[in-house]
């Protein structure tokens, strides 16, 4: 996590924590008690706080659990004006930020899009995708990919894989509705094929996006991958042996340590927003509208022509907070990829994007230690 934060220039140290249990076996009341007790233990050991450690949602958690953490911290730190900056991924009504829920998936798409800007890095790739995993990251990745013109031909979950090669591929909203109603993607009426869960890796596609759990591409499965490019949306989906085999087969990998950093980037935005106690864009919004109107009025005077009300409205409308978040995320992901690519060109011995990404991270960490020193 330290390396991931360094790659995308987020000033967090990068720790992780969690509880090893299956939340599906517990009631909401029990989950709340577990979450609040966990938070209390973190507080007791000084492992949580706006300037100490700032948790965020991951596997099995979401805005609800983050709200419980924030409320527990606030209750045990009365009067702290920055208390709600102790955790990110909160509901928007509780100090969260619009765009956090789909941030990891959106970051995957933005990183993949930036990578594909350099076709010489990934020759032969097109616009069909296969996605192992249809949780938060997998769903948002698939949904945003389709809305940007990609075709998702297969999605794999813990209980099976569905394949739709014809037409525009899998309808993501339809599949989500089916899973919500039936608790599974199995039996999806539009599926042309239903395969075992692990078969997702063998589906022929241009880009394979592992978006679920770790170690799915290993020494036994890497030889079966039929994609031209692997884009790691999950944490650690490829083992070192699997990575080596993919490299020998000429299948490039956009690494997780960069590609799924969208979540922590927008968590950083939420944290900064909580510390400022002000919505992004609030101070400048009306000023920008007035300046734009003045510019349009001057253009109308000079040209002798009037804009239609619809055109003026489109030009004057300012970005909302989510649009600002998406813009900032795109800037972070784009700049980070460019730095990784520059390192790969500068140091040919890096070979892979993964190695280049770690070089970028380690260079930044080394520079930090050199400039700040170590004390005591």
Automatic annotation (TrEMBL):
**Substrates-to-products reaction catalysed:** L-glutamate + NADP(+) + H2O = 2-oxoglutarate + NH4(+) + NADPH + H(+); L-glutamate + NAD(+) + H2O = 2-oxoglutarate + NH4(+) + NADH + H(+)
Residues of the site described as Important for catalysis: 58
Which biological processes are named by the entry's GO terms?
L-glutamate catabolic process
Q: Quote the cellular component terms of the Gene Ontology held in the record.
A: mitochondrion
- Where, by residue number, is the active site? 16 (proton donor)
- State whether keyword Oxidoreductase applies: yes
Enumerate the GO terms in the molecular function aspect.
Answer: glutamate dehydrogenase (NAD+) activity; nucleotide binding
Does the record's keyword annotation contain GTP-binding? Answer: no
Residues that, per the record, bind substrate: 4, 267
Q: Which residues form the Glutamate/phenylalanine/leucine/valine/L-tryptophan dehydrogenase C-terminal domain?
A: 97-373
Detail which positions bind NAD(+): 104, 136
> Which of UniProt's keywords are assigned here?
NAD, Nucleotide-binding, Oxidoreductase
Family note: Belongs to the Glu/Leu/Phe/Val dehydrogenases family.
Q: Which PANTHER family match?
A: GLUTAMATE DEHYDROGENASE (PTHR11606), GLUTAMATE DEHYDROGENASE 1, MITOCHONDRIAL (PTHR11606:SF13)
- What's the name of the protein? Glutamate dehydrogenase
Q: Which organism is it from?
A: Geodia barretti (Barrett's horny sponge)
